[in-house]
Amino acid sequence: MQEANNHTAKRGTFSSGFGVLAATLGSAVGLGNIWKFPYLTGANGGAGFLLIYLLATLVIGLPVMMAELAVGRQARSNPITALQKLAPKGQPWWLIGAAGMIAAFLILSFYSEVVAWVFAYVFKAIGGSILSNDPHVTEAAFNAMIGDPVQSLLWQWGVLIFIGGILLLGVTKGIEALAKKLMPLLFLLLLVLCAVSLSLDKASEGLAFLFNPDFSKITSSAILTAMGLAFFKLSLGMGAMLTYGSYFRDDQNIPMTTVRVMAADLCVSMLAGMAIFPAVFTFGFAPAAGPALVFITIPAVFSQIPMGQLLMVAFFVLAAIAATGAMLSLTEVPVVILHERLNIPRRRATMLTILSLALLGSTCALTNNVLANFKLFGLNMFDLYDFISSNVILPAGGILLAVFVGWVWGKEKFGHALSNQGKLNNPTVTRAAFFLLRYVSPVLTLLVMLKGLNLL
Ligand code: TRP
């Protein structure tokens, strides 16, 4: 018991306002923007998908993010304990935290493999073999990499060891310091990339694909995917933002932080989209290429500019860093749960998490080679973990959290938390967020989920 109290007393906090923003943004911005957003938009017909994604972000993402941050800061503990603290005795809301831990493992399993591809591409970019605007060349390079089980496994384990190392340094030094320095650089490089791509021959076709909706392509499963992406993008539904909220200072403005993170995150996704689709149409790639899309088109864009190879190395380094910030926030959830719930020292909790991930994650590293024909419910392990986490657990976690705040925690306590105990004068924001959480977000999320899963 003594020990447990010590943990709470010694919890880290983010030290500065900018640091909070950078770390929270660091969690949101990641391969979701650079890899997942473009490939899902491409596979689901472009602008219509984008529109639904935007709607989901505003109506569901924004209020749920405020709810997670507020609950986290109020309780100042890991997701499971936080919900136990704030819920009436005996009600099992803490299960949201437990489900979140499962989601964290599933997401990290495939995410770490994509980060592994990014790390590997840093070295391939240095070697120069992938720099080409010929789809056959860039596709062959990508397929050769993911088809090799030994390479895939080793890169993934390397990534996991790297992440474990940063987490051992602790919250302020590890997560905050890295995020603060490097996020702006990524933004800058994407801007350059975008400018290059927009000057290509068929740039307008790419832009039309991204911005002119074709409503015939919007199916219920596309809508579920767009909503799942909104959760995934803002790191919602599994306690990652809740955990970061628990490190927020008391004077941090939660609604303002949420809006800024969402806006910046959206900018990064849009820049990635505008860097990729003009090139897709100019060089004859398939927009629906799937998870390979970024890895095969980005080299083509770089092949068009002087010093392209050097800049491509920089791009993959920065993508690796953005992915690292996101991975840290995911890994932090099981680590802090093991540490605070089971009284396992933080170091050992980190190592345990990393080790389990090396095991579970290897099923994703082997998905494109040894296990290529192994499927459950018609999906390989990589896609299955992605589907279950993004399209089932995260939305379900979001629904339950919204219901918890809207119907159990209540307007007064939520408003108190969002206004920093009355110090901020933001009753309209609070009222709007509460209304959405109580009536709109959970119902909408549930409908989309049931329809998308063919249960309705
Ligand atoms: N948002 C991150 C991205 O876009 C991924 C991520 C980090 C995440 N933490 C999360 C997704 C928690 C879901 C839940 O790359």
From TrEMBL:
The lineage of its organism: Bacteria, Pseudomonadati, Pseudomonadota, Betaproteobacteria, Burkholderiales. It is a multi-pass membrane protein. NCBIfam families: Na_transp (NF037979). Belongs to the sodium:neurotransmitter symporter (SNF) (TC 2.A.22) family. One of its GO terms (molecular function) is symporter activity. The chain crosses the membrane at residues 12-35, 47-71, 92-111, 153-170, 182-200, 220-245, 257-277, 310-330, 350-372, 384-409, 429-450. It holds the Pfam family SNF. Keywords: Membrane, Symport, Transmembrane, Transmembrane helix, Transport. It is found in: Membrane. The keyword Repeat does not apply. GO terms for cellular component: membrane. It comes from Rugamonas brunnea. This is Transporter. The keyword Metal-binding does not apply.
